[in-house]
Structure formats: C-alpha cells, structure tokens
Amino acid sequence: MKKILILISIIIVGVLAYLFNENKTVTKVSSDISTSTKVGFVYLTTPGDHGWTYAHELGKQQVENHFGKKVITTVVENVPEGPDAIRVIRELAQQGNEIIFTTSFGYMEPTLKVAKEFPNVKFEHMTGYKRTPNLATGNIRFYEGRYVQGVVAGLMTKTNKIGYIGAYPISEVIMGINAFAQGLKSVNDKASISVVWANTWYDPVKEADAAKVHIAEGADILAQHTDSPAVLQIAEKNKIFGFGQSTDMSAFAPKAQLFASVNNWGPYYIEKIEALRNGQWNTGEAPDHWTGNKWGGFSTEMLQLSEFKNMPDEVVKKAEEVMNEIKSGKLKIFAGPLIDNNGKEILPAGKVMDDGGLWGMNYYLQGVDGKIPG
Amino acid sequence: MIVFTPRNKISKNWIFLAPILSIFLTVILGGFIFTFLGYNPGETLYHIFISPFTRIDRISDVFVKACPLIIIGTGLIFCFKANVWNIGAEGQFIIGALLAGSFGLLFPEMDTKFLLMIMLFIGFLGGALWAFIPAILKTKLNVNEILVSLMLVYVAMLLIDFVVRGPLRDPMSFGFPLTKAYPEGALINKIPIPGIGFLGQLHYGVMSIFILVPIAWVIINKTLLGFQIKVLGSAPKATSFAGFKEKRITIIVLLLSGGLAGIAGVIEVSANMGQLQPEISFGYGFTAIIVVFLGRLNPIGIILAGIIIATVKLGADNAQMAIGIPKVVTGLFEGILLFFLLTGETLQKYQIAWKKYGS
Fold first, then answer.
1. Which residue is closest to A171 within chain B, CA to CA?
2. Is B56-157+183-324 in CATH node 1.10.3470?
C-alpha cells in the first residue's frame, strides 16, 4: 500500500511540475506595448446572448479593427453586478488597463468605488448617471429607434393592437414605450399599445410567455424591450411581426423581423480611446447630470437600424424618411403638446422636452393602455 | 443495477489521498479539454489554481468571496447532519439582508455604532423566520421541507425585487431599482492594513468566519444538542427511544441555518454593496450546499471547501483576463472538479458492485 501511495505522489508531482513549467514561456510581452493602449471591458453575460452583450462585443471588435496593434483589449464576461464586479474592475485597473468600459447599469456603484481608488485610470460606465473626474458615462438614445418602430407598426397593423414587452418599469423603458407611442400616433390614431412586464432583461421563456399573452389578446405587432430573440421567434411561429433588439435578429425570425434597432457602441469606444491617446479624454460636463453624458443616437451612428424587410415599399420609404428627419434634428420626438394617458398635459405646445425630462418619465403618453405598476 | 454498500473500514490513507487524486484527475482531464480548445493547459491551470494566491490582495479577495459561502455552510451543517434538507438558504440570505437593510434605511435616526449590531440581529431573525415556515410545515403537517424551502427562495427574490423597485427605491435614482445608500453605521468597513492601505475588498465581516465556525464546531461536538442532531441524522428511531424530541430538533436546526444565512446576507450587503439592489445573492445559498458536502459536514472542512470554490471562481476571472478563455470553459472545469471530489468521497465510504435485478 505504502509503495502505491509513494508512486502516485511522485506521478502527481511530476505531472504538475511539467504542466506548470510551461507557464514560464507564456508572458511574452509584445515589443510595441509601450505605445499601445490597454483597454478593459466588463460584460454582464456572454456575447452568445445575441443581444445586449453581443452588441458590445461587436463594438469591441470595431475598436480592434480600427486601432490594430495600438490597443490591447481584455474582456471579462459573465460578471455579476455585485462584489465580483468590484474585484474584476479593480483587477483590470491593476493589470494596467488605462481605460475600462463597464457595460451594464448594475456596475455603477462598483465602477464608482474602483474609480476612486485608481485616479489615473479612466472609466466609462454605460447607461448609468454617476460621474467623477475619471469616470464618464455613455448611453444610446434607444428611443429614437423605437419612434421609427412605432411608425412602421402603425402602418403595418391590421388589428390596431400593438403588444409591447418591457423589462422593468424604469425611466429608460418607459421613455421607449412613449417614443413608440408618439411614432404610432403620428401615422395611426386608432392603434394602441398594451404593455406586459417580463420583469427580466433576459429570460427567453418569460419573454416568450409575455409574447403569447399579447397574441392571445389580438396583437399583430410585437415590440420588445428585453434582450433575447424569443419574442421574435414566437412572432415568426404565429406569422405576425416584431422588431429586433440590440442586434439584427433576422436570423432567428427571417419572416417576422421588420427591422432591428442596432446598438453600435463602436464609434463611442473609438472616440473615447482616441481621446485618451491624445490626452483629450474628459467626462463632459458636471457630474450627476444627464446632459454631460455621451448620449448618442442616429446622428452619431451609435444607433442604427438594420435592413427594412417584410414590409411594402411605401412603408420602407416612410420609415427611412422618419429616420433621416430624426437624424437631422428636424423631427423632435417629444415635442409639445404632450398629454399623458389620463389626459393631463405634460408639456405645452411649442416646447421640446429636455434630457432631464426624459429621465423623469413615470407616466404613459396617449396611445398606451393601462398604468405603470408600482 | 449499481449497488452502493458502505465499507466496513474507511482507509485513513484515502481520506487524504482521495482529494489529491481527484484534483489530479481534474487537472489531467481539464488539461486535455484546454489543449483541445487551443489553450495552453499549464497556463490555464496556473491562472485558475495558483494566480489567486500570487498577490496578498488576491488572497484577501478569495476570503471575501468565500465568506458568505462559509457562513451559510456553517448553518447548513446543522440541518444536513440531522437529515433535514434545507435547500432554501438563498432565500433566507435574501430575507435576512432585506429586513436588516430595510430597518437601517427606515430608521436613519438609529445611525449609531450599534446600528450594525441591531441589523445583524434582525438579519438572524429574518433568515430564521424564512426557515421557520418549512420547519413548522414539516413538523406539524409533514410537508416536505426540500420543496417548501426551495420555493420560498423565489418568493424571497420577488419580494426584494418589489421592495427595491417600489417602497424603498431611492427617489433620486431616475427610476433605476436601487435604494438609498445605507447610513454610515450600517456599513462594514474594509480593514486598513498599516503601510499598505486596503487589501482588495477585505472587510471586518470576514472575521466572523473565525468566530462562527468554532462556535458551530463546539455546538456539534461538545453539546447535548449536537449529539441529538447527530443521532437524529444517523438513527432517527433511536432519537425517540432516547427521549429526544425529534420535532424540536428539526425546528432548531432549521432556525439555526436560516439565521446564519440571514447573517451572511447582512454582512455581504453591508460590506460590499452599501445599499439594497434587486440582486444581492449570486447563488451563494446554492453554492453553499456544495461547500458543505465538499467539506464533509465538518466546520473546519467547509472553510477549506469554501476557499477551493472561491479560488476556482476567482481563477476563472483571472484566466479570462490573462488568456481570454471563456467562462463557459472554466465553468466546465469547475464542474469536473466537483464531480471528481464528490466521487472520491463517495468511493471512500462505499463499495460499488453490479447486481442483477431481483438477486
């Protein structure tokens, strides 16, 4: 028995020694490291979600293509929005990343904490609102795409019932529903939106269930503010239409997807990294204030629409026209008079809602049924 | 049919050799997988197992990560030793943190150095309360505690979600689901090390491991209650012959484990988040179950087991940062590790034989 034990021990030590010995050769440093910028990314899920994180992954690839050897990117995926995030972000800072992009709202406090510890590292937090001298924020005007969705839905619907699936009743989602309603109203004043809350950002099963509820109630167009392609797949099965979220999802629903609002983070990443390399990096205006946020839409190419499909040519034409008007600034989505769905005036005629007003939305505009829970 | 028969004698050598052999097999199999996927196996294994110990602040972070697992696990030992299957520690963790946090947020005038003490107490009560539901249902109505405790996890998750999005939402949060920051007295501070500053996230809450685990050890090994728990677990009928009250023991172990999970929740939120958010536990309550079995229902063992699990989790992050290996692959590796460790333990205790049906 003793002999066997000794033998096993020797084999184990030998194999371990062999395996770990190889390690010495790995940390070869590339020769141009002094001139390249190290960039870190923190992802909430994996790029395999085909939605939110995948869009960030595509942005990261744009960074790599644009800068080539001038940047070294490091990614950590599947990072929960708690103490793990603090540790991972700190580790990235410690490993010499000069700018770190944290790509989910829940990383706000973790990013803030680490940013205080590393004043020389730049941090970019997406979709949050807290800033410090070395922590900037970035976001996309998703609602611009939803206005176009509303226009297309208004022209395509036959039952005049639009099923909308929201993640959570927070300002960002409500803003999107209201923008959709504005677009819908501009072409079709008979149609209305009903909202089902999935209470999740990503859960294909729950999202599919919500979609089925809408279909049972007679909706023939589905819109979603959740991340998976499940809603579109249900639409495809039931031969109705829907819109892709974050990335082009037509592969999942070739006959159902009218178009997708595509989050294009690349230009924002590239702009901020370029600024850092030129010594021009800054956080915009004062902290804790939306208007200083890097908040881009159609005009900065941060929001794009995928190819218009499955709709008549005149609808395509109208959609393109509306998109270009938003892009040029000619069309203001939230211009007065704005009236909520209880008949109360929110904004008088002749005025345009500012960004602060958008983030204060806790009401539905006309065209949306029901009331916001909570 | 595969039959497991208990071994008459458990080999002393294998108690130490089995885990080593298990890790060895994991390394070999994992190494093959990494090589097959095009990653250098030595490098990957280095990042998973060794890199978390290469800097003192990383070592501290291993303990920070292991802390909730070990505290919850300590409570679960009582249950599992008594053959009471509390699967709902995740929910007890959440309710403990939720009640304690709500107290801290609703009574900011209580903001003194005692606030944290009160919150820890409320956290214990909250977790115990959540475990009391399966306890009372099991002892009064003979309802299966596995099901009840598990289902209550989802109730707890929805409850905290509701509270954070509704009644306790910070009005200044632009509709985002976050509460206000805890008052100063409700926070657990990081430990300042003279000359270095802070070591990662290392906080005073980690110290509680070294208080709670010895207490648990004493209760289990040196008190009548501990003896009763062990008797109930290994020979339920003997419990009543000896005049022990089976139902009372069942309730006590559930309250203890629920309470400890609640305390773990308070510590985790007060030390690492400083406010309530929709998600505060990331499967700690479930991972702790693995920790307990890996630690062989032994308080000292679960410290080691907690550290192993925490190491692999941290190592997976490090491996991705260093060589870009996806988390799914390191997750697979983690699964292989647990498989071999638990198999090794089972084979120590049981012989396996193949029998035909009916024979």
1. B175
2. yes
